[in-house]
Amino acid sequence: EVQLVESGGGSVQAGGSMRLSCTASGFGFDALDMAWSRQAPGSECELVSISHVDGRIDYADSGEGRFTLSRDNAKNTVYLQMNSLKPEDTAVYSCAAGFRDSDLRSCDTMDYWGKGTLVTISS
After folding, report:
1. Which residues lie below 8 Å from residue 59, measured CB to CB, with a gap of 6+?
2. What string of pLDDT tens digits covers the 123 residues of the chain?
3. Spatial distance between the Cα atoms of 121 and 118, rounded to a whole number of angstroms
């Protein structure tokens, strides 16, 4: 059974930092693209970063320069370091895994999802 379990959410003031973690099980972690998405109330799912199996890491414009995705294949874990956080970064952040053709333009390109963790940024 594929499982993705996020941790590290919570509340922080604007300008602060937060690191999210996602531990995966039930599949070959190093064979899948891993991603972080977010969804704010009333908004659609947005992929903020993807780590591709070929080593590329993509970032959405919303997180470029502020968010850093890293993965530790030995620990089956992917991280999202978020700095200079803004109130508009408030959302439920979810971890996702995809077999192929993972694309920032659509959350539908990912195949497995975690339940998400709430990140709240206060002004």
Report:
1. 48, 49, 67, 69, 104
2. 899 999 999 999 999 999 999 999 998 888 999 999 999 999 999 999 999 999 999 999 999 999 999 999 999 999 999 999 999 999 999 999 999 889 999 999 999 999 999 999 999
3. 10
